[in-house]
Amino acid sequence: MEPILILGLTAGALTTFALLPQVIKTLKLKETKDISLLMYIILCTGIALWLIYGLFIEDIPVIAANTISLALSLTILFSKIRYG
Asked: Which residues fall within 8 angstroms of residue 23, CB to CB, at 6 or more apart?
């Protein structure tokens, strides 16, 4: 595996899984009052655009990281909408 691919996968994994503690806390406590709705709308939109970009350029680290990031961010966003 090429070093640049390892770098991209590592960067993607770290930034993606940084969302995991918030997802766990949100689902466990069902408490979202301190989470910004606008921030997560903007974040999900940006991640979706990065995913589309990755698909166009066929870049595996970009696609993988943004697919997982979008799923995690949407979980938080929908929890925010549901639990307020």
From this structure: 72, 75, 76
Domains of the chain: 35-84 (1.20.1280.290)
Closest listed residue to residue 43, CA positions, set 7, 19, 62: 19
User: C-alpha distances in angstroms, 80 versus 5, 9, 17, 71, 72?
Assistant: 35, 29, 19, 14, 13
Dist. CA 26–CA 80, nearest whole Å = 8
pLDDT in tens, 25-70: 999 999 999 999 999 999 999 999 999 999 999 999 999 999 999 9
